[in-house]
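Subject: sequence -> structure tokens, single chain

Hey, anyone have a minute? Need the predicted structure for the following. Not urgent.
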Amino acid sequence: MEENDVIDLLIHQHNMIKDLFDEVERASMSERPEAFRRLVRMLAVHETAEEEIVHPYARRKLEGGKEIVDDRLTEENEAKQMLEHMDESGVNDPEFMSNLAHLRTSVLAHAQNEERYEFAQLREHTSEAERRTMAAAVKAAEAIAPTHPHPGVESATKNVLLGTPAAIMDRVRDGIRRARGDKS
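Reply:
Had a minute. Here:
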């Protein structure tokens, strides 16, 4: 895997997300909260970086880019809403496993759509240098991204304006949870 190519990086992350879903599904009740926290964080960080870096570029660069990106943003918002509900309800919610299965189906379909409709065209219509630059930008965006879902913040502009305060709040909340030893 070439992490210096944004498409390879994002596809690798899609595979990691699939593995994290597997991990949550297989986890014992005592292991499930931490496994789910890792999944929530990965999804939140990954989507934020795509929304800030990849989607705006695709919107401008690809023929039909606006429609392609708008469809992906609709999918992302729906998944964020599900994830936010699950994150707030916790792993002890009686509906957790059925919600997880629904979320998994939604997220993996979204990833497949990105790879098929957006990433394939980006690879075709961008240079190696452009993809390297975007990979570096994605990594930088992920380093400061919120760690929990924030539905309704799917545009680059909203992520830039609201992302940093949301990331700070998320990271404080994560620290408090760790300090309390929360298992939910």
